[in-house]
TrEMBL record:
Entry's free-text remark on domains: Consists of three domains; the N-terminal catalytic domain, the editing domain and the C-terminal C-Ala domain. The editing domain removes incorrectly charged amino acids, while the C-Ala domain, along with tRNA(Ala), serves as a bridge to cooperatively bring together the editing and aminoacylation centers thus stimulating deacylation of misacylated tRNAs.
GO molecular function, one term: tRNA binding
Main location: cytoplasm
Organism per entry: Thermoclostridium caenicola
EC number: 6.1.1.7
Catalytic activity: tRNA(Ala) + L-alanine + ATP = L-alanyl-tRNA(Ala) + AMP + diphosphate
Full-protein positions shown: 2 to 471 of 879
Enzyme class: ligase
The protein, known as: Alanine--tRNA ligase
Main function: Catalyzes the attachment of alanine to tRNA(Ala) in a two-step reaction: alanine is first activated by ATP to form Ala-AMP and then transferred to the acceptor end of tRNA(Ala). Also edits incorrectly charged Ser-tRNA(Ala) and Gly-tRNA(Ala) via its editing domain.
Lineage start: Bacteria, Bacillati, Bacillota, Clostridia, Eubacteriales
Amino acid sequence: RKYGMNELREMYLSFFESKGHLRLPSFSLVPVNDPSILLINAGMTPLKPYFSGLEKPPSKRVTTCQKCIRTPDIENVGKTSRHGTFFEMLGNFSFGDYFKKEAIPWAWEFMTKVLEIPEERLFVSVYEEDDEAYDIWHKDVGLPHEKIFRFGKKDNFWEHGTGPCGPCSEIYFDRGPDKGCGKPDCTVGCDCDRFIEVWNNVFTQFDRQEDGSYVPLKNKNIDTGMGLERLACVMQGVDSIFEVDAIRAILDAVCAKAGVEYGKEYKKDVSIRVITDHARSVTMMVSDGILPSNEGRGYVLRRLLRRAARHGRLLGINELFMADIADKVIECFGDAYPNLKEKRDYIRKVISLEEERFYATIDQGTSILEEYLEQVKSNGSNMLTGEMVFKLHDTYGFPLDLTREIASEKGIAIDEEGFHKEMAKQKEKAREAHKSRVGSAWEKDLFEGTDKNIPTQFVGYTEYECDAEI
Ligand code: ATP
Ligand code: MG
Ligand code: MG
Ligand code: MG
């Protein structure tokens, strides 16, 4: 049995349909009326109004496969076997309907009966104080004590400021000792790639108050999320999410473009995986109407696209290539997400234009950087100043890590602290200018296409994350 991504997606959704759930299509990556997030990062986020009771759901039981973007995971991408900036999250949701007694046995039924995963490979965790979930796993499902791990708040309690929150229970798959870190205490919860977390079941049963107390909710909810890529990785017995059927096809297209073979050299493999992942993110973001810009979502898109293009250069690709990789994404995922096919030409165009812009700035920035390096050397220093690094970043769109890399080849370090100081100054200035010049042509240009509802603080956070890593 192949268990391709398309098949697994369908198996999951139809399983929960058989349990009375209404299947909804994925929501856009762009959140609606939710200034707290830039991009949809979980199956539950577009459903928040149903959980909070603000809106009436079309059904009390819903199942989806949701497109997600998680930029905070960017550092892991290509390095762990299980993280992408883009992934699809399978989920089943109860809005004040069924609760733990149904959700837990159904999750087990899907894993062991429908997918026939051998029970000995599966482990679960519960929140340390959640005896109810523990007992369901132990007594109703029949899991022995040594298979149920009690973890603390950090891992097994889901909350986000005030509002609906609660404990969660996660399902892990043991990929075997050869996939692990080999440490003697390696077990469920270890951050290595052996016990891979596949499914999180969240039991939203409390309403967290301003004063930090937890009031039980009248309507208890279920919110679950399983990464389709991780499930496919486990079912196909491959090394990483980059090797599951449809994603491997994209990876192979990257290798063909670069004329390199996968699995020969670690550094090259990381670049190949980064491009593969970012090509998915970028294609999906553009298909949802996001355009490259210097703010908010557009900035995330710009950074991902430029990062992929740069890794392309590292692999020796010296021409525009991302649109062709996007084509492969469309080919592989166009049936599951029909708007990809409808917007194919548009997606190609947006991607190529941005990639072209990037190459132009890179070429310009390279000669400026060469000048700076000469300057620094003739001053008898061995460090580029924060101002220089910032100027390269700000005026020439030159990513920090590229500056670092090229400088270090010449034996020169960079003042990263100084860079971040300049960055903070710039943000403060932009904020001030934004306040005082609303409506001017300058403002319109700089903040074009931005969502004024996004709190500045949050945008800063996301930008910083991208700046730090890309
Ligand atoms: P991890 O600890 O591995 O980073 P997580 O605890 O952050 O995962 P959750 O927020 O619980 O993940 O999301 C639910 C599920 O979504 C996870 O169990 C996993 O299968 C999947 N998932 C989460 N982050 C990613 C990612 N970056 N790439 C692919 N799948 C992911
Ligand atoms: Mg995570
Ligand atoms: Mg986790
Ligand atoms: Mg989790």
